[in-house]
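Re: [ENG-882] Designed sequences occasionally contain unexpected residues at chain ends

Forwarding the minimal case from QA. Structure tokens:
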């Protein structure tokens, strides 16, 4: 077969394919408007497919938003709240007015660590697995187990394990407040607090639910209520059921009286530098530069 015949055949095939494509485009229905809108919305989402919003992926979340924009307030994408461009894009596309001041949150591990080991643990290096084995290998039945289930699920590498204290720590600069770590913790000691929250309580030991043969760490909350009594602005509420303080940050003036009076330093100020210094995340060089 000559070269000209081959060229002719290929040309004919190309023409036939072109005609078929043209016919299919004319016959098939147009792309639904909802799908077009979902595609536009998805361009203003992070594309991480982390599932923190409650949907299997970002496009599934975009489809839900394109049908009901109010879903954003019940299933918030924390990463979008951290990105002004994506946030503005969603507001324009969906006609939303988003107040980030009340929605922007950070994760806090309500445990300072320091709980002693009560034996050698040779099982699966997982918090959920260790917790199922007689409540874990540490004395405190409410403290962080330190195996890093929260580290594994964090999409922003914001969590690490402090080997000295044996507890998880969150870098507030990296945390987006997605809440995946909250779901992953079998002890329920990770809490999402508003970014402007002033005080963090670093203990979760509930005296009212004492476990026989188990005790808190040497520096755990004494449940003395001194912080509660010292607050002059009614910003601290004493949770009688759990036996621990809770905070109304709208009333907190950060006077520091509760921090000063806590005998075990379980209360710390939630400003980046203070929290990082408390948890050993700031190098000595950084401290010198800040001085």
């Amino acid at each position: 077969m000559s070269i000209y015949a081959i060229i002719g055949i290929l040309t004919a095939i190309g023409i036939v394919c072109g005609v078929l494509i043209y016919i299919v485009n004319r016959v098939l229905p147009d792309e639904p408007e909802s799908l077009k809108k979902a595609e536009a919305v998805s361009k203003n989402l992070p594309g991480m497919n982390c599932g923190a919003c409650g949907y299997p992926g970002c496009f599934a979340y975009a489809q839900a938003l394109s049908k009901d924009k109010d879903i954003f307030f019940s299933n918030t994408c924390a990463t979008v709240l951290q990105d002004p461009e994506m946030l503005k894009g969603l507001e324009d596309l969906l006609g939303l007015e988003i107040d980030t001041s009340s929605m922007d949150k950070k994760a806090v591990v309500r445990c300072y660590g320091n709980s002693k080991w009560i034996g050698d643990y040779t099982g699966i290096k997982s918090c959920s697995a260790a917790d199922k084995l007689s409540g874990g290998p540490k004395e405190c039945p409410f403290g962080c187990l330190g195996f890093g289930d929260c580290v594994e699920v964090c999409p922003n590498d914001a969590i690490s394990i402090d080997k000295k204290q044996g507890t998880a720590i969150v870098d507030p600069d990296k945390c987006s407040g997605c809440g995946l770590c909250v779901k992953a913790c079998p002890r329920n000691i990770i809490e999402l607090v508003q970014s402007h929250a002033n005080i963090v309580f670093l203990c979760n030991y509930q005296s009212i639910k004492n476990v026989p043969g188990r005790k808190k760490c040497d520096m755990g909350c004494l449940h003395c209520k001194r912080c509660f009594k010292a607050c002059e602005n009614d910003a601290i509420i004493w949770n009688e059921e759990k036996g621990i303080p809770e905070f109304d940050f709208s009333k907190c003036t950060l006077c520091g009286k509760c921090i000063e009076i806590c005998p075990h330093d379980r209360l710390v100020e939630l400003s980046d530098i203070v929290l990082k210094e408390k948890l050993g995340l700031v190098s000595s060089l950084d401290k010198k530069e800040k001085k």
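QA comment: On inspection the terminal residues look reasonable. The first strand starts at residue 105 and ends at 109. Proposing we downgrade this to a documentation issue.
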